[in-house]
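ok posting inputs for the thiamine diphosphate job
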Amino acid sequence: MYYHREPVSQGELGLMRRIDELHLDGAPAVSLDDIRQFRQLGSKTPGHPEYRMTTGVETTTGPLGQGCGNSVGMAIAQRALAARFNRDGFTLFDHDVYVLCGDGDMMEGVSGEAASIAGHLALSRLCWIYDSNRISIEGSTQIAFTEDVGKRFEAYGWNVLHVDDANDTQAIAEALANFRNTRDRPTFIVVRSVIGWGSPRAGSEKAHGEALGADNVRATKKGYGWPEDAQFLVPDASPKPSTPRLRSAARRRAKLGSPPSSATARPSRRKQPSSICCARAGWPKAGMRMCPASRPMRKASPRAMRAARC
Ligand SMILES: Cc1ncc(C[n+]2csc(CCOP(=O)(O)OP(=O)(O)O)c2C)c(N)n1
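and the output
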């Protein structure tokens, strides 16, 4: 059991969702005061997720498309680690990698390149959830981006699913279950949503690029049945999402169980370091040997490609 990894490629909005989770965890990494500092210089809650600034944020995704690219590296790492270290009865690495991404991510070339290699390698532990609200900073995506993104991912070899309404949590749960049952290719879930849903600016680029303003905030809270004057309210009944990476070592051990004592079932400690980057079950000795500094890149890269294609 490793932790699911979750690059938030969407920038500000996605980060706020992650911060909520970090705050609502039993041992919050982000306090309400930290959240009040949202987007302030030097705060734990910068405008985009920043690796090393906030506990629970393990990758920086400011440039659109970056989180998508990062996720493919994480999914390749999952496969390599699983092949190298998992043993019967002692599964250390069986985690999935989830990405929240938006129209801006899909417009960026890097996400297409990353999706291509993910499809080629059939990275089945990888799931991208595409928030398709068809609005970007400039307005409707119709201005510049009209391709059928789902079809593009089908061509990459992904399992493409559609959820017609982002508020249909049942449909989202079913799509995620479909992903977990699809173990021969990565999954791409196109979720149709309305930006700024519930606010007077719903469906408008203003919901992205401008502060709502006090009146609109009140109207939005009213629409949600939320106390209009409450600021930074976290009701006692809020669900407590699990953020396993913040769990105590004892809780982790309880879930993982005891490692088998047999030397054959347990990976040798001496063999672990340095072989991680390119390791694959059955590879002789340390995988790192195939990419020493002296080896020309053109010779190292095909070997690395073959290693990832387990
Ligand atoms: C590579 C890159 N170019 C430009 C930006 C600036 N930028 C931040 S958000 C955004 C628009 C994103 O649109 P979308 O993904 O549709 O987000 P939504 O409007 O749905 O919140 C842009 C252009 C950026 N972060 N990265």
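notes: The mean pLDDT is 82. The domain at 12-193+235-246 is CATH 3.40.50.970 (Rossmann fold).
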